[in-house]
Amino acid sequence: MLPTLDARLTAAAELVLPGKPVADIGCDHGKLTAVLAASGRYPKVIGADLRPGPLAKAKQTLEHAGCEDRAELRLGDGLSVLSAGEVGTIVLAGVSAQTTWEIIDKAPWVSQPGGPRLVMVPATRHSELRRWLWEHGFTLAVDRPVQAAGRWYAVMAAEYTGEKKTPTFTECLFGRTGEWPEGEGYAAWQKAKLPRFRLGVPDGSLLAQEIDDLLAGLPR
């Protein structure tokens, strides 16, 4: 039986480039790996995790879904399980923003023109991941707000272009989520966290003014 994906993993699956190999890094229970393998849209599906326990669960998931012969499971740290050019899409779902960019940073072959698409679902600190991507030459192809289990996620697809950008705080806060119908709800959730964040920002600074304008509802 094919596992059911929640809204965030469903959105992530939709951003994987068809017709090219895909790797689900940090595959955990293997639900996304199984759905990708069962779809038949990819010539190779790789599920990888740092620990043997989750990989054992992923193996069971693949067996129950009847697609264990269409996916390969690998044990290893981050992108060390892959070789340059092996996959067209890398999925990094369910880890923090910092862990996400640390994984990317350890694999220089990802930050090359024509490199793989990165599909990311950071568990926390969406804004900081957007800033890191822009400052390191990645373009956000998709930045979709998704609500699952009562909380908001940003499901991002990024590709390396080499064009580095220094974004504003507001750009990092919302990204491209305003392009989606759910963007208003995501924006309200992001804004609700600003008063507490503002307490740690020095009065009179440019960042303080930008946050104050956001809280006052002034256009930017």
Automatic annotation (TrEMBL):
<dbReference type="GO" id="GO:0008168">
    <property type="term" value="F:methyltransferase activity"/>
</dbReference>
<keyword id="KW-0489">Methyltransferase</keyword>
<dbReference type="InterPro" id="IPR029063">
    <property type="entry name" value="SAM-dependent_MTases_sf"/>
</dbReference>
<dbReference type="Pfam" id="PF12847">
    <property type="entry name" value="Methyltransf_18"/>
</dbReference>
<dbReference type="GO" id="GO:0032259">
    <property type="term" value="P:methylation"/>
</dbReference>
<keyword id="KW-0808">Transferase</keyword>
<protein>
    <submittedName>
        <fullName>SAM-dependent methyltransferase</fullName>
    </submittedName>
</protein>
